Amino acid sequence: AGNECSAGNTLKSDRLTIATGNPAYPPWVMNDAPESGEGYEAAVAYAVAQRMGYPAESVDWVRTSFDEAIQPGAKNFDFNLQQYSIKPERLEVVDFSIPYYTTTMAVVVRDGSAASGTDVTASALKKLKFGAAAGTSSQPFLADVLQPEQDMLLYDDNADVVAAIGANQIDAIVFDLPSALFVAAVQLDGGKVLGQFPVENNVSPDNFGLLMGKGSALKPCVDAAIESLAADGTLAEIESTWLSQATGAPVIDMSK
Amino acid sequence: MSLTARQRFERRERLRGIAIGTTSLVLVVAAIYWLVPLAPGWEAVQRSFFNWPILVKTFPKLLDAFLVDVMIFAWSLPLILVLSLAIALCRNTRNPALLPLRVFGAFYTDIFRGIPTILLVYLIGFGIPGLGLSRPWNSPYIWGTVALVLTYSAYVAEVLRSGIESVHSSQSAAARSLGLSEADSMRYVILPQAIRRQVPAMMNFVIALQKDVALLSFVGPIELLRQANVFKSLMANFTPYVGAAIIFLCVTVPATRYADYLLARQRAVRS
Amino acid sequence: MSLTARQRFERRERLRGIAIGTTSLVLVVAAIYWLVPLAPGWEAVQRSFFNWPILVKTFPKLLDAFLVDVMIFAWSLPLILVLSLAIALCRNTRNPALLPLRVFGAFYTDIFRGIPTILLVYLIGFGIPGLGLSRPWNSPYIWGTVALVLTYSAYVAEVLRSGIESVHSSQSAAARSLGLSEADSMRYVILPQAIRRQVPAMMNFVIALQKDVALLSFVGPIELLRQANVFKSLMANFTPYVGAAIIFLCVTVPATRYADYLLARQRAVRS
Amino acid sequence: MENPKLRLSGVTLRFGDLTVCDGIDLQVASGELICLIGASGSGKSTLLRCINLLEPIDDGQIWLDDLEISVPGLDPNPVRRRIGIVFQSFNLFPHMTVMDNITLAPRRVLSQQPDETAQAAMALLSRFGLADKAAEYPDRLSGGQQQRVAIVRALAMQPEIMLLDEITSALDPELVGEVLDVVRQLKVQGMTIILATHEMSFAREVADRVCFLDAGKILETAPPDVIFERPSNPRTQQFLARVVRTNG
Amino acid sequence: MENPKLRLSGVTLRFGDLTVCDGIDLQVASGELICLIGASGSGKSTLLRCINLLEPIDDGQIWLDDLEISVPGLDPNPVRRRIGIVFQSFNLFPHMTVMDNITLAPRRVLSQQPDETAQAAMALLSRFGLADKAAEYPDRLSGGQQQRVAIVRALAMQPEIMLLDEITSALDPELVGEVLDVVRQLKVQGMTIILATHEMSFAREVADRVCFLDAGKILETAPPDVIFERPSNPRTQQFLARVVRTNG
Ligand SMILES: Nc1ncnc2c1ncn2[C@@H]1O[C@H](COP(=O)(O)OP(=O)(O)OP(=O)(O)O)[C@@H](O)[C@H]1O
Ligand SMILES: Nc1ncnc2c1ncn2[C@@H]1O[C@H](COP(=O)(O)OP(=O)(O)OP(=O)(O)O)[C@@H](O)[C@H]1O
Ligand SMILES: [Mg+2]
Ligand SMILES: [Mg+2]
Q1: CB C83 within 8 A of CB C149
Q2: Which domains are seen in chain C, by residue range?
Q3: Does the distance separating the beta carbons of D157 and C179 come in below 8 Å?
Q4: How many separate domains does chain E show?
Q5: Is the ipTM of this complex over 0.95?
Q6: pTM of this prediction?
Q7: Residues B83, B87, B91: CA angle, nearest 5 degrees
Q8: Mutating which of B170, B177, B189, B191 best tests the E interface, going by the most E Cβ atoms within 10 A?
Q9: Tens place of pLDDT per residue across chain E (248 aa)
Q10: Is residue E209 part of a domain?
Q11: Is position E1 within any domain?
Q12: Going by CA atoms, what residue is nearest to atom 5 of ligand 1?
């Protein structure tokens, strides 16, 4: 299998090996089972594979941590997707495809807590005590853009941040919007998305790309596949299937 | 047989102790049992940490993952013992010609105790395979184990060294005076005594190692704690860690009790 | 002053040792320096682990974060020492009435050594505040420290206990025969000797603690290793960990060398 | 004996199956010097440890003046203050200077002022020719000096009885002399002393009475002339015969 | 002396500033029994340790037969096989049975067959009345038994010379006898022996010659009659006077 671009360039001939996290979270991958194609990233992965000439049965899944994804040795995947933000620093050691999803940051609080009444303005939010999952884009966003007055706290993963807000150790959490919606709806008791940051003005666009080994020969093929998926509306369709609409989450006023 | 005054007194004391102990234990347990659930957040905490359905669901997979720990532990421990022994012996040489070995030993323990294990695991687990090794020689099991062994042997070497130093020099004089070589007197005379003295300290490290096998998970292998971590992330619930703790305790507690028992028996028999 | 035959011989041996040592060191370093870069993956490894611009960029922030470690270390260490001493004393009581203390001590060490520290940090760091404490009493600094102290004091208690047991019973007989109370003879006679003997083992744990302060980062605080972790994610590069290692080594190596020096001097002066 | 300083009655101590003190009866008058002799393992040291309450006895009673000190559960520390003991192996505290070794107990137990204790300690040290060693650590001293420090340490508590357990057997013959001189001094000053020893000639010289122990029993108690010249018990005769032969 | 078994010439050893052996000259004939006497710290033990190459000497030479064994860098083990040493504190290996204590060195150093060694060891043990203790651990034995085991352990290597360092001073007087009997036996069998001792009467009985050491020097070497009856050196006179007084 494979089209003229990808054939012969994959890890295993005639098969495409795709990596995601362990575990993989909804709404990106449902039930930690990417093989089902359910969940935004699982669906995108199969769509990209399809365009590259690999039908679903030619796709293998592996699991990697972030660390394994960026380690300097030979990779055990063709591409890896687990909400990797495309950042210039990262490009030094790995390659990214063009973005397959662009999102923004959002603030999650507990409904009924003191913080849930905060005005959706930058100046009001700065007074809250923030937490975030380390290693996501939330940390640089907090540190460089929002700059809250109190020191932020960082955690290993979403589950830990949720526990921390449950223990009232933090007032608010910053996630990418889809994760925020999911966490608020499912993981956090009485969670609520307080607001999302504006996408425009280059304040917080978070572009997710497929991660590949440095100098991967597959990059042009992957880029072409994503381009065509975007062009014919497939990506938008997948998004509307798996990601809840961000309606109802007010946009935070950064000027106040 | 009738008891002497002292025996009666001691029995009374012991009974009193047991009575006080039991009472206070019961009080504390009762306090925890009745008071903690009154805390406003108890239900949430219980749901997060002591969630029976989640425990039942995850436990079998945790047990599976524990096999990985057992495996890594089983091959790391002998390597650690051998390497730490070598380092301890290096640090213990007295021969002026062997100064470099002493320096090397001091360096080794300083560096490998001082470097955060996680860096070592990354550096060796990712770095060395990254130099261009191909499968199976780039296995994270191999290089992760190497990192673990390097770290632990530095700690254990210090324990062994102080054991060796604590065996009185007259023992080594006696051994060498019989014409035994340095190696033989170390092997047959000094080490058996040194190791015996350091059993409690070594047990500390055996237990810690059992848990630090988890460090290998940074470079891939999914062992018990990593599996618990995956479940935690997935279910946003810490109960799987409680499951992991149960498994660990089932192994380490009998092991330490047994080691203590052996030591006590040895002390009773000898001297 | 002219040298004796033995001194000449020993000087020759020492010089030979230094020569061999230096040569082999040079050879090894040269081999690493020339050969490793020839490996196909060297450039990638270098970029990931030894990236000078990244080191320069991240180092100041790492140093800042290290202050958090220093702080936590500074208040944890005395707590650990006090608690571990209390536990060791519990385990060491001989009075039949104090059986419960002995049992408690054994339980304590078994449980807190056996439970994975990460569980304890979660359980205490999230669980206790989750019961309904409000700020500042739910601070992760407080409860994370509690978890760390509980774990470490279990390990250190065992070290102290074997130190106490290694002080010959004749010392305590001598102290008690003078009419000193149990507490006084422990405090003035047994403990000073026990602690002195266990300095190398304690150093092991001081060094390990210095690094395990990082466990608090699970419940929020951004200390050195967490900061390195953030940079690693941000830059997809492991160099910040090397920076962290440099900082740790700068602290732990002089500390161990100094402890070794004190011990050696003590040994030379006494006995 | 009227008003014995120390009275043992049926003192029995077992270690498991081994009866180390087997119904020992003994009365010691104030100012008396008793020597315990007997083979190794006969129970001399253990008996002294029992008197000092370092071993709780299984049966029998011990009285110090009118106080029964063998009552189970009695706080041993006030009793131990009144009874000094010196061990064969000195057991000085290696991590303290000579001065600290001596003054620790008076300061902690008798709550004396530091300078008062120090003065008293210096006086004792001078009396035993150790004034210049006050600041030394024990392992810088010779065996004889260490043993004298151990005696001073016990005396600093101003005990009413001194128990001395083979205090010369770890010393070389030149040093033995200086330590025995100390014992002679103590006796002259009227101290009540129980001394376990293998130095038969010394026992003979200084003892008021000698007890011969064998397998945890006192087989014979008599003035030294009687014990050494015409021992009545065959086991005593045998022991003395062997000791005298090798001691030449 | 012609063909001395052992010859020391100008043997000097310093610990830092302290000269512990100070130009010691001594010749020992085959089958001779030399006693070293002298105060504690005079260097007796150290001299024996030098001969056994446990301390590398700073100056001087030591010959065993025609071999200079004091050459720096010489492999000491073949030499030590030929010289047995027994220490004051026995230094048995506490984690091994008596049998293992004795057979370890023959097995490892002489590469003997295990059963052959065991037989030889049993023979030696029987000779010294220890046959029933072969399977015991050292700390189950009395001091005298331990010391005899230590002697047997050294003899099992079939040494040409035995160095005995105050082998009775840790023993009680009844036990001293049995160990000294062993030394008498060895002498009768023609073993060359150097014995450091405080047992003057024993030295007098068995020694061929007695050396008096003081501050690392041999001040006087003479047959026992001469040393004990009319010592020529004033320091020797003083030492013997004090020792004899306390030894009674
Ligand atoms: N803690 C103990 N446990 C078991 N047995 C003991 C203990 N202490 C002493 N013994 C035994 O009690 C007996 C008497 O010992 P003790 O030390 O009193 O004898 P001793 O007359 O002082 O001998 P020595 O002259 O060698 O000092 C010995 O058989 C000894 O092994
Ligand atoms: N390792 C050492 N370092 C420094 N000094 C030492 C060492 N070994 C022995 N000495 C010193 O050497 C001197 C001689 O000691 P040695 O043990 O040889 O005397 P000795 O005649 O055997 O005495 P004793 O009769 O007490 O056994 C002593 O002053 C001792 O302190
Ligand atoms: Mg005794
Ligand atoms: Mg000596």
Answers
A1: yes
A2: 57-270 (1.10.3720.10)
A3: yes
A4: 1
A5: no
A6: 0.86
A7: 170
A8: B177
A9: 778 999 999 999 988 888 889 999 999 999 999 999 988 888 898 999 999 998 888 889 999 998 999 888 888 888 998 999 998 877 899 889 999 999 999 998 888 888 888 999 999 898 888 888 899 888 888 777 888 899 999 999 999 999 998 888 767 777 777 788 888 889 999 999 999 988 888 888 889 999 999 989 999 999 999 988 888 889 888 888 877 655 54
A10: yes
A11: no
A12: D15
